Amino acid sequence: MSHMVTKRQPVHPGRILRYHYLEPLCLKITDLAEKLSVSRKALSAIVNERKSVTPDMALRLSQAFETSPDLWLNLQKNYDLYKAAKANKEWKKIKPVPQKKCSTAA
Predict the structure, then answer these.
(1) Could you give the C-alpha distances from 90 to 5, 54, 58, 65, 82, in angstroms and in order?
(2) Could you tell me if 18 and 47 are in contact, meaning their C-beta atoms sit under 8 angstroms apart?
(3) What is the pLDDT of residues 43-64, one digit of tens each?
(4) Domain map of the chain by residue range?
(5) Cβ 43 vs Cβ 32: under 8 Å
(6) pTM above the 0.90 mark?
(7) DSSP 50
(8) 7-21 average pLDDT score
(9) 13-87 — its CATH code?
(10) CB–CB of 29/47 below 8 Å?
(11) Closest CA to 46 of 9, 5, 86, 17
(12) Distance, CA of 69 to CA of 79 (rounded, Å)
């Protein structure tokens, strides 16, 4: 059974944050960083797609925007898996491990 990696690049959670939350709500990165109790630099790195959303940040964003932490973590996971699959093809050479149950003799 092979797991397919999507052909289309998933959106970085920072882009979702910018275009679905910051811009429509007229929020500046500095203001949101203050509300989230994080540094402007940390939030800016996410919004500008240079850093990943961590579990802690996912909790903060979910609280601020009444979403689930899973939303933010799944966006990040999908983005990271796509990038990893494109960056290196070595993983495709790995053969499946036979799924035979071992017999245990008593």
Answers:
(1) 14, 27, 31, 39, 14
(2) yes
(3) 999 999 999 999 999 999 999 9
(4) 13-87
(5) yes
(6) no
(7) S
(8) 96
(9) 1.10.260.40
(10) yes
(11) 17
(12) 16
